[in-house]
């Protein structure tokens, strides 16, 4: 009886937390279909009657200003895809080497990667922007290298923990069959890393896709704008902001991440738990 009561209490508490967590997303969705004047005055009411704007906010947001929205979508997709691909490839390879070699240098590199997770971005952002300009990492095709540096800490930590759970005998058997390190990694290790690869990929994708500060500091915003930067510039004369159009574009930017997350959510807990078994 006590166990059932405890489970019911936990269920109620977690349900309330989930509702509170989802409320901001629902508010964005509701207000994206309202006329701009009612977004502030009737924020939590449903868009009915004269408040309903249809899809005009979406059209207005995508056609506002001189910078086309499709370019922002394209740059966000390019930056996110390249960044996540680089992070998954290089950090998983580095983690495999660190876990299998396990010498002093590898341990130092591992602890440096873990330490980088606690360093606030604000401590390095001004130096980073100057360094990126000097090294010409200020384009959508080169900024993924910067994201690789910032995303390596969490990825290496999770990958090392998972690689340590893989029996070494599997890789030894591959070596006996004639596989070198490269073939062993791609044909043996990568398939077993799939849960952690997907988990890390989801976490990194959500971070890069929604990131505003790093592209704003590094990229030339007159030439390259990601979706968050594009939304920031939805301003009219005297700094007025069209909140309806802003909510519409925010909703459009959220949908791809939600779809990707829902499609891969079954791998998240499994990958995170497996990567945290050993550190």
Give the topology, please.
Layout: H1 2-31, H2 36-41, H3 56-63, H4 69-101, H5 104-116, H6 125-134, H7 143-163, H8 168-176, H9 181-192, H10 194-210, H11 213-218, H12 227-232, H13 243-275
Structure, explained:
- The structure is a single chain.
- This protein has 279 residues and is mostly helical.
- The chain folds into 2 domains: 2-61, no CATH class; 67-275, Orthogonal Bundle (MetI-like fold).
- Helix content is 73%, strand content 0%.
- The chain has 13 helices and no strands.
- It has helices at residues 2-31, 36-41, 56-63, 69-101, 104-116, 125-134, 143-163, 168-176, 181-192, 194-210, 213-218, 227-232, 243-275.
- Helix 1 runs antiparallel to helix 13, helix 8 (168-176) packs antiparallel against helix 9 and helix 10 (194-210) runs antiparallel to helix 13.
- The longest helix is centred in the N-terminal third of the chain and has 33 residues, at 69-101.
- The radius of gyration is 23 Å and the shape is globular.
- Mean pLDDT is 85; it is low at 275-279.
